[in-house]
Amino acid sequence: MQSRVSSLESQLHASSQENLILKKAVVVQNEKLLASAAQQHAMRAEGERLLAHARALERDNYALRSHLGSAGPVQGFGGGAGPPDVF
User: 73 CB contacts (<8 Å, ≥6 apart)?
Assistant: First the structure.
């Protein structure tokens, strides 16, 4: 009977140690998951910021092209048909 109790106590101790290790592993995994989610959120926000910047640049480019087109022919660029693409 005494050996049975001792065996069960040993198993209980081993199970408690394994449980402690598993709890630590879960904490580490949760930290990694939170860090990954934060990084993903930051990358998504940066992507949205870059897309908005690209749209603004495209809008400005369109406005400048329209302005140049409505300015009429420019003398001194070889024929007056407007500025060349490459100077």
Answer: 80, 81, 82
